[in-house]
Prior knowledge:
The protein is of the alpha+beta class.
Amino acid sequence: MWSTFLVTDEEGRTVGPAGTIGGMATGGAAQGGGGGLTGLMSGRSTFGNKRRRTTAAGHAMSEAQEGKIKLAFFVAIVGVVLTVLGVGTEFWVELSPPKSFYNNKTCLTAHYGLWKGCTKTLWVADIDPERESCGPAELPGESNCTYFKFFTTGENTVMFQKTTQKNMSVAAAMLAMFSLFLMMMGAICITMSLSKEILFFLKPASVCFILSGVLVLMSLLVFHQSVLAFLASDHTVPLHHELSWSVSCIGCAGGVLIVGGILFLLLALPYSPWQKCLPHKDSGGGGN
């Protein structure tokens, strides 16, 4: 009786009686169940592989680690700000002849940095009577600033009948610029580490900040040697020279950047160096 009833599915195929349909459904269900179980197992395996890859890549970043990274990043940013302030200003060195070298009313002082130099005419009456040389450059007076020509035409600059050293000045400027580039790359690495929660980016960031700090200090040393060569180029006009506040910014920036890079390197280690060197004693092991 049941064999006389045939059912046509949506695709136009003839399906057998209910018993046959049940058998096909049962077989299909069994087959589907097997496929579903296989897919579930494969999916679980894939999920486990992803978890293992995620942990190996360094995604497991706790809130404490994120806070430490942000603190170290703040230290590095302080070094970057000091570097930009020092590189962008022209108060690296001040040059001043004796205040009575020209006349008894005015005297001439000069200060320059990596990019430009300034001469300033001061009133002798405004200078401290106990000071023998003209200055300091912060006193009010008529100032004239020009960019160095050895970056464009290759010409040296003459101040107080002394000639600047083009090669050393350009080398100091290029070291400072390359250090700024490394700071930018380190900042990008830290931003990627915080946004993607990947600890791996801390290692290249630490290298970038440490190298940038070293290059900043090297730029300062090369600049100082260029100043000494500048003073030795002519001895007609006696000059008193002193390093100014821009150099202090650069020196502090180099130290801060190196410290920031070391902090990133410590945070990138798979273990805490403090716990490795100073392990905590078990408080429960010393009981009576």
